[in-house]
Amino acid sequence: xxxxxxxxxxxxxxxxxxxxxxxxxxxxxxxxxxxxxxxxxxxxxxxxxxxxxxxxxxxxxxxxxxxxxxxxxxxxxxxxxxxxxxxxxxxxxxxxxxxxxxxxxxxxx
Length: 109
Known about the structure:
The chain is of the alpha+beta class. The chain is 46% helix and 13% strand.
């Protein structure tokens, strides 16, 4: 992997790191000296290569999302924002969608 580039941003009066290669901003940080920016760039690169920067993604299940959606719609029924017939139609549609299995998508259901 190439080293991360460090540039002086005249408008801010600071050195910034182009950290887009490691999934961060193209103008990462505010460093008063070039050496401090280079040291941080090397640290970011090392963290990226070892996997320390990557945040684990929490997998949300379709069924959980559907339950949350239907619960919010039930609150709307209780507040008389929508009718019970409309809620039942939404629920029927959600049940239909959740019953569909496309390729390996069923592991998220």
